[in-house]
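[INFO] parsing input record for RNA polymerase sigma-70 factor
[DEBUG] input buffer:
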Amino acid sequence: MKRLDYSENEILINSLRNGDEQAYIYLTETYYNKLCVYANSLLKDIYSAEDIVQNVLIKVWEQREKLKSGLSLQSFLYKSVYNEFIDTYRKNQSLFELEKNYFEALNSVVQEEDAESLQQAINAVNLEIQNLPPKCKEVFIMSKKEGLTNIEIAEHLDVSIKAVEAQMTKALSLLRKSLQTKITSILFLFFGKLKSNSTN
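[DEBUG] output buffer:
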């Protein structure tokens, strides 16, 4: 059987669409390092760059049937990496701003609360965490209590990083609504240090 020339753009696209795993291996071997260099130039973080590239390549395979004839795969891959970078940046900025707002209230929390009322507030936080929807609670505890990164959580739960980010954002939003401002601030300051106070 004649071996296909995957270096030909159209042959590679058709092979991918048909589920040819060798074509996908060729694609990753050809573009992975190049895309990582490009992603790293945007992020200045090689580990995050590799995560983005891996996500892009996984999506290419998962959505291979949508690849169109005449598409320049190289341009498509670079554009996909850039779009993934933009999505990641926007979400990180959103979470950063959300947490920043909570931390701004910490000085008044520490100054005004005595040890007993502070412990009561911590208990209230832990109770609300336990009341989160199951998926939200699982992701939130793995992040805030166990100190895992979104990437590690995604690997552990066998879900996408975007799914982890979505659950974290939902958890933060629900906790913000259910807790008073000062108590919510305590959540971000203390939760990671109070593993023994949380119920599993």
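[INFO] The chain has two domains: 9-87, 113-197.
[INFO] shutting down worker
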